[in-house]
UniProtKB/TrEMBL annotation:
This is Putative ABC transport system permease protein. Pfam families: FtsX, MacB_PCD. One of its GO terms (molecular function) is transmembrane transporter activity. Its main location: membrane. Residues 290-404 form the ABC3 transporter permease C-terminal domain. Keywords: Cell membrane, Membrane, Transmembrane, Transmembrane helix. The chain crosses the membrane at residues 21-42, 286-311, 339-362, 374-394. It is a multi-pass membrane protein. One of its GO terms (cellular component) is plasma membrane. Residues 21-245 form the MacB-like periplasmic core domain.
Length: 411
């Protein structure tokens, strides 16, 4: 009953000093908002990326050229290896006999300008050459039209699949795009499909991308070596390690890597992408928690200052309570609970604002999922209680030590 009475007294004190209590609660609310908001946005990003990886499946891996450019490692210059060529990539696709989907792609340019009649895009469109398996293995859905056929890919037909953002820039609302012509990089292409909106947090910005047959991309490179990348999707996930071993052996054979030398190419499985993303999000969480902690530290100092003022203002009240038999423990409880009540009021407001702001941040980055971070909500409220305890204890201890006779004389 004493705790309940102290809670009621804390609420009465909040009402009696409404402006001061609201300002203090707002300081706490800002700290909790920054804490919960940032962590909610990070959870939204992580959930979106995990969904993207799940759609690809953890049973995929990439085979690509080594990205080092003769860097110096511990005093030794790393060996430069030639890029994977189109011929080598095609040999891999033909000879790899493990049941799998084999996608081949290469970026042609990142600064293309796509034109149609009087309309054109910004000169920042990515043009990517790919085979007919690329859309399936990257979980790309078509809003309109179809994907490349094997015949179109092998012949290097001038057909294109447009990203959603490019379609919106070049076509009117509900206008049919399939069968029309677009121009980029000095060549005219017939549109055969439009990709569904994917969002900018996908592995690539597919919304601002044009897909063309890989043979056509190779022709348009005009002798410039493209960075070809093979993505292999295994039918049986339990065979992933075996499949990667087979891929390594085959690619070493195709590229004539000598026994005892390192691979002249790189293999990366999708689990590694998930692990890398987990590392990044954990670092972001630490950063977000640090920002929230610093804000809450300022809030706790402000709260302690206000509680000290409150003790001074209520010295006579403390004296009356002590004269009526209140023990130092009860006095301490009263002021500590009052501090916790103020913190909890600010914490509740901060959690609500944090969820709203965090999801708005996620929405601004193209993530549609609404995230309710139950764990961070609980942590936020626990932090509020801890801040209240820390901020309220010293003023409460000071109040409990007041002499009742001197307190009653206080004006």
């Amino acid at each position: 009953m004493d705790i309940i009475e102290n809670l009621k007294e804390g609420l009465r004190s909040v009402r009696a000093n409404m402006l001061r209590s609201v300002l203090t609660a707002l300081i706490v609310a800002i700290g909790i908002t920054s804490l919960v908001g940032i962590l909610t946005a990070i959870d939204g990003i992580e959930q979106s990326v995990n969904e993207s990886l799940a759609s690809l499946g953890v049973n995929t891996f990439d085979v690509k050229s080594r990205s080092n450019r003769g860097a110096n490692n511990r005093g030794k210059t790393e060996k430069l290896y030639p890029q994977i060529t189109l011929t080598e990539a095609k040999q891999f696709i033909e000879k790899y006999d493990v049941p799998a989907t084999k996608s081949l792609s290469a970026g042609l340019t990142d600064i293309a300008e796509v034109k149609r009649k009087s309309k054109k895009t910004n000169p920042n469109v990515q043009v990517k050459g790919c085979n007919e398996e690329y859309a399936a293995i990257k979980a790309l859905e078509l809003q309109e039209g179809r994907n490349f056929s094997q015949f179109e890919n092998e012949r290097g037909t001038q057909v294109a699949v447009l990203g959603y953002k490019i379609y919106k820039a070049l076509y009117d609302e509900n206008e049919k795009a399939v069968g029309t012509e677009v121009t980029f990089l000095g060549a005219q292409f017939r549109v055969i499909g439009i990709l569904e909106e994917k969002g900018q947090l996908a592995e690539d910005n597919f919304d601002n991308m044009v897909l063309i047959p890989i043979i056509k991309a190779n022709q348009m490179a005009k002798g410039r070596g493209l960075w070809y990348e093979l993505t292999v999707g295994i039918v049986d996930p339990t065979q992933l390690e075996y499949a990667m071993g087979e891929a390594t052996g085959l690619m070493r054979s195709i590229r004539h890597d000598r026994i005892g030398e390192q691979n002249s190419f790189e293999l990366e499985k999708s689990e590694t992408l998930a692990e890398n993303m987990a590392t990044i999000t954990n670092a972001l969480r630490i950063g977000g928690f640090s920002v929230g902690f610093i804000t809450l530290l300022g809030a706790s100092i402000a709260l302690m200052n206000i509680m000290l003022v409150s003790v001074t203002e209520r010295t006579r009240e403390v004296g009356v309570r002590k004269a009526l038999g209140a023990t130092p423990l009860r006095i301490r409880q009263q002021f500590v609970i009052e501090a916790i009540v103020v913190c909890l009021l600010g914490g509740i407001a901060g959690v609500i604002l944090g969820i709203i702001i965090g999801n708005l941040m996620s929405r601004a980055m193209g993530i549609e999922t609404f995230v309710v971070p139950w764990m961070w909500m609980m942590i936020g409220m626990i932090v509020c209680i801890i801040v209240g305890l820390i901020s309220g204890y010293y003023p409460a201890h000071k109040a409990s030590k007041l002499d009742p006779i001197e307190s009653l004389r206080f004006e």
